[in-house]
Each structure stands twice: as structure tokens, then as C-alpha cells.
Amino acid sequence: MERVIGIDLGTTNSCVSVLEGDTPTVIPNRGGYKTTPSIVAVTEAGKRLVGHIAKRQAITNAENTVYAAKRLIGRKWDSPHVKSALMTSSYGIVEGPHNDVRIKLRDRSYSVPEISSMVLQEMKIIAEDYLGEPVEKAVITVPAYFNDNQRQATKDAGTIAGLDVIRIINEPTAASLAYGYGKDFDRTVAVYDLGGGTFDISILEIASQGVFKVISTTGDTFLGGEDFDARIIDWLVSTFQEEHGVDLRQDRMALQRLRDAAEKAKCELSGVSETEVNLPFIISTGHNEALHLQRSLTRSTLESLTQDLIERTIDICRQALEDARLDVNDIEDVILVGGMTRMPAIQGAVGRFFQREPNKGVHPDEVVALGAGIQGAALVEDRQEMILLDVTPHALGIMTFGSRFEELIPQNTTVPTSRAKIFTTSRDNQTAVKILVMQGDSQNAEENEFLGEFVMTGLRRAPKGHVEIEVTFEINTDGIVAVKAKDLETGQAQSIEVTASSGLTDEEIKNMVKDAEDYMVERRTDEEFEAAKQQAETLVDSIESLFPDVERVVGSADFGRDAIAKARVIVDQTRTAIDHKHTRKVKDHLEQLERTERMFKGVVSRAQ
Ligand SMILES: Nc1ncnc2c1ncn2[C@@H]1O[C@H](COP(=O)(O)OP(=O)(O)OP(=O)(O)O)[C@@H](O)[C@H]1O
Ligand SMILES: [Mg+2]
Questions:
Q1: Whether 458 and 314 share a structural domain
Q2: Do 527 and 453 have their domain in common?
Q3: Residue range 424-435: average pLDDT?
Q4: Is the bond preceding 28 in cis, omega lying within 30 degrees of 0?
Q5: Interatomic CA distance for residues 197 and 554, integer angstroms
Q6: Which atom of ligand 1 has the smallest separation from the CA of 368?
Q7: CA distance 193 to 200
Q8: Top mutation candidate among 7, 8, 12 for ligand 1, by most atoms within 8 Å of CB
Q9: pTM of the model
Q10: Are the C-beta atoms of 20 and 10 separated by less than 8 Å?
């Protein structure tokens, strides 16, 4: 049976899991950590770094280190969220060719799916190293409130990473799968997921025999730990400005250090009631003088700085209950997901709103990935005993006269779903019809997310009103939208061109896949070299340490001098091969090095 991995591609951290036998298991990375920072960097030498090693060099290479790319995925250049990211990010965000967003690292710009693909590729490698076999199939999670553009872009990221994304599932739904896995109960639950970048709340009914039915879902894809950190940064920056008249935001390195310190202080305040932010030499004022930042932050200050953010999540919870037509008393368990739910003020607010102590039985950082792995296994094994019914988080519709939004599929409809609508030509011999497809919850089309222009071309020529085209709008299980059209009279499928979408073209994706493959080859070659080098160096060190003894024992005999000379040659040749990074030569020398070491050890031990 082919293995499927489950990947939680987080704003801050990513996590990968697999089902081992019947046990959902998180796969640790090489450092032994169960989550990997979703951070990508390019070094001065042009080397790509992902995860912990990218995080460790973020301060000294702030301009070329990307974090929280998920906040930008599938967004349009002119969206308010991108504007806000532009103001606060320490890396370069530039406009792409499709009204999309590109990220500049060193001398290249990358699309956001490409950046995310680097994180996914890293997760794929972590899984392959652990399983000892290549992995292709994956289930990737997305915030439940992601729209079609964001989902599509995430799927593209998977494709670029060389993954076959067999399903996209919603993060809170994945969490509920892991929570309910292997248990046999009927229960209505709320999943409150506040991560680094996004907030989701889903209300689900879990029924015995493994039925997971989402009743309502809502959220905010731009509300998470990053915003909490930003409040602390604002507070530090403004008090520093008052005191020293210096704006720390002007300095990228200072900003990156502030970002780290703010997050650290926030996390610490989940455990203690006061902490110290200490950043010596935060900025230089010229003339060899530097300023230091030192300030103590209390839990209650943090709570007052972020109270409105917490309240926003609670308002969204209220909405989710209303959409589900349920009362708080109907909720039998509240599951906390995401690193931010470790904050006591959040646990308190959630507990007060739902009038019950939230469940602490699931691991907030791992449960989403575990659920994705469970779903992955269920899909390839075609397990009948697990049924997952999710919903679309946004209404789907089209723009009609006067920028009105005509809703075709309402929010919280169970997916997959479809809806057909008939369009009629309004002019004689009209050969094309254009439909503007949007997603959102406003009556005013312009306030909703524009998915694309679907143009039906090559219609048969006829008097106006004589050509009727049936257009079917579909949302699949991944929450991704497709539009199909057919001529009602002839029954012929009508071709549709999608234009004005912010996604990548097939050609672009193809090139990116190629780049990712090249990277893999390079990386595996590097690893092969490192392994050979390590082995060779150990042998060389051992041989060298034996030289004096060997010389003493057999150095006066001809065969001994000959053996020593040969050993010196092979040691030198190995060193040269290592210096030239010549993997094959290093490997070729290994056998002779081993032989030499064995012989030397034999000579020495016999003499003793
Ligand atoms: N002990 C803690 N107290 C407060 N916040 C914490 C704590 N531990 C982690 N966090 C915060 O949780 C956030 C990361 O959570 P998580 O790893 O669940 O996010 P993510 O899955 O990467 O993001 P998202 O789900 O939004 O895409 C960060 O903002 C981090 O600072
Ligand atoms: Mg998350």
C-alpha cells in the first residue's frame, strides 16, 4: 500500500505525519523536533535554507529570510492584507505579473506558492528520511476559511514540491478527525484554532461509526499569533521612540530582533506573570554609540494590548454558533488547536464563552497534521468506516448588473456540491459570454473575492435568446471551484477560458517543478558528499594517529616504508578530493582507506 503523508502547512510551523499501522504518528525532523519553522532563506552564497536553520540566521540575514508566507498565499497584490504585510515585513514583497505577490530574495523573485513549496519539500524529505522510501502522495491542510484562490495556490505549492496532493482538508476538521479517531461517540464539538497567522472556528457533529460532519465554519485568515507579536513590537517601538527619539522600524535587523523578542516574551507570559525584554545594542546611533532596549512586560499589559484580538475571535465563535443554529449549551466539547491557545487569556475567554472548560487532551501543535495523515490513509485504503463531510466557508456566486452579487451556492453548504444556471445570449450572433465568478458573503460583488473571468467562446451563431448555455458551478471536496458549460440545445460541452485569475499559469508551474527537482538533485548530492566526507575524515584521522606507531614498528623495513608512503599518498589524495568536493573520488578512496587502517591497526597490535 502506498504511503500517504499528512502535512499541516502552518504560518509559523509545519508538521508532517503518517499512519503507522493504526497509530497516527508525527514524524520528527533530523533535529528531533516534531514541528519545523515555516521559514525559508537564501544565503549570500545562494544556498537555500528551510526550517530551524533558516530561523537561526534570520537576524543576520533579515532581508532574505521569509516567514509567514502563508499570510500572502493566493492574495492579490492590491489587497489590504498585502498592503499591511508590506508595512511590517523585513523581506521584499513585490508585484507579480498576474496582480499577484512575489517575494524577492537576493537577485530572484519567487511566487508565494514557490516559497511554500520549499517548506513542503522539506516536509517531504523529513518523511522520506524517516520512512526510508520515496513519498509522493500527501494530504495538505488549509485554514477552513481559505477561499478558492488560497486553496488553489496551496495545491500548486504541493505540485511544485513534487507532491501529488490527493486532498486538501480544513485544519479544524483535521483536528477533529485526530480527536475522534478510534473513539466511538456521538458528540457536538467546537474546534477553536488560533495559530500563528489564522483563526478558524468549526462546529462539528461527530457520530459513532466515524462520521464527521461539519455544520458551520468561519474565521479570519489574517488573525493570529503574528498580530499578537505585532502589538508587543508596537509597544516596544513606541516606548523606545518616546525615550530615545529613535524609530527602530527603520532598521531591518533591529526589527527582526524585536520580532523574535516579542514572540519569546509572549510565549513566556503564558507561564509566568512578568518577563524581561532585553536587547542590548539594538541600534547604533553613529559615533560608535549604541542604544539598548530593556523593558519588563507583564502578563496583564500583554492582555490589555491584545484584548481586542481575543474578542474578535469570540465574536467569530458567536457567528459560527449562529450559522450552525446552535446554542452554547449544545456544544459538548471545545477543542483548542494552535500554539496561541496556550495563552491563559485565550483559554479563559473561550471557556467563558462556551461555558465549559476547554479540552486539553489534544496536542495543539500536532493534532492538525495527525488528522491529515488519518485522512490520507483513509483515502488510499478506501476505508468505508470514516466519512468526512465538510462545508464551503464562503458563498459562491457571480457578479450581475450594478455590481450585485448573485449567490449560487450558500456558505456552509456541504461539499462536494454543484449548481447549474442557464445563460442566454442577449445579442444576435453573439459568440462569447463572460461570467465573473466570485466568492464571499457580501451583497455587493466588489467586496467579495474575485475568482476569475470565465469566458465561453465560439458559441454557435443564432438570433439573440436562441442560444442557451447551461453553466455548472462546482465546489469539490478540496473546496476548489470549477466551472463547466454546455450548449443546452446541442448538448455540446462549451470551452471555457479562465482569465484574470491571480494563479500561476501551467507553464510557470512546470518551470517551478523543474527548479524544485534540480534543487532535490543538488541537495541529495550535497548529502551524499557530506556522508562520504565524514566517513573519509574519520578514517584519515585514525590512520594519521597510527603513523608514529607504525613507523616505529615497521619503519626500518622496506615493505614498511612502502606501506607508509602509500598511506600518505592515499591520505593526501583523499584530502584533495574533499577540498574539490569530488564525491565520487572520495567514495572511491574509502575502500583503500579502510584497508590501510586495518593493516596499520594489525601492525600496531601485533607489536604490542
Ligand atoms: N506558550 C505559548 N504562549 C503563547 N503563544 C504561543 C505559545 N507557544 C506558541 N505560541 C504561538 O503560537 C503561534 C504558532 O502556532 P501554530 O504553530 O499552531 O501556528 P501555525 O499552525 O503555524 O499557523 P496557522 O495555523 O495560523 O497557519 C505563534 O504565534 C507562537 O508564538
Ligand atoms: Mg495551524
A1: no
A2: no
A3: 90
A4: no
A5: 69
A6: 21
A7: 5
A8: 12
A9: 0.91
A10: no
Final residue of a structural domain among 363, 389, 415: 389
Query: By alpha-carbon position, which residue is closest to atom 5 of ligand 1?
Result: 340
pLDDT score recorded for residue 208: 86
Express each pLDDT in 221-270 by its tens digit.
999 999 999 999 999 999 999 999 999 998 889 999 999 999 999 999 99
Last residue of a domain, one of 358, 389, 420: 389
Pick the residue whose CA is nearest to atom 3 on ligand 1. 267
**Res 499 pLDDT > 70:** no
- CATH number of the domain that residue 476 is part of: 2.60.34.10
Does 498 share its domain with 511? Answer: no
Q: Which CATH number does the domain housing residue 57 bear?
A: 3.30.420.40
Task: Answer yes or no: is pLDDT of 385 > 80.
Answer: no
Distances from the Cα of 244 to the Cαs of 237, 248, 524, in angstroms? 10, 10, 50
**One domain for residues 106 and 42:** yes
Q: Which comes out higher in pLDDT, residue 604 or 36?
A: 36
CA of 224 to the centre of ligand 1 (A): 8
Domain coverage including residue 89: 4-224+307-389
Q: What is the pLDDT of residue 608?
A: 75
Nearest bound ligand to the CA of residue 261: 1
- Alpha-carbon distance values, 361 to 57, 198, 343 (Å): 35, 22, 16
CA–CA gap between residue 174 and residue 374 (Å, rounded): 8
Average pLDDT over residues 10-15: 98
Distance from Cα 339 to the centre of ligand 1, integer Å: 3
pLDDT digits (tens, 9 = 90+) for 295-318: 999 999 999 999 999 999 999 999
Residue 355 clears pLDDT 90, i.e. is over it: yes
Tally of domains within the chain: 3
Q: What is the CA(162)–ligand 1 centre distance, in A?
A: 27
Checking phi first, is residue 401 left (phi over 0); if not, alpha (psi -120 to 50) or beta? beta
CA–CA separation, 84 and 234 (whole Å)? 14
Rounded alpha-carbon distances, angstroms, from residue 307 to 247, 312, 349, 578: 25, 9, 10, 57
Residue identifier of the C-alpha nearest atom 29 of ligand 1? 225
Note whether 427 and 479 are same-domain residues: yes
Residue 131, φ and ψ in degrees, nearest 5? -80, -20
Whether 142 maps to a domain, the answer reads yes
Q: Which of 11, 39, 52 to mutate to test the pocket of ligand 1 (most atoms within 8 A of CB)?
A: 11
Query: Higher-confidence residue: 333 or 402?
Result: 333
Same domain, 492 and 553: no
Tell me how far apart the alpha carbons of residues 39 and 68 are, in angstroms, rounded to a whole number. Answer: 7
Q: In terms of domains, do 64 and 88 share one?
A: yes
391 exposed, middle or buried (CB, 10 Å; 0-12, 13-18, 19+)? Answer: buried
Active site residues: 8, 70, 171, 193
Instruction: Check whether residue 371 and residue 434 sit in a common domain.
Output: no
Is residue 468 assigned to a domain? Answer: yes
Nearest residue by C-alpha to atom 7 in ligand 1: 267
pLDDT tens digits along 151-161: 999 999 999 99
Domain membership of residue 265 (yes or no) is: no
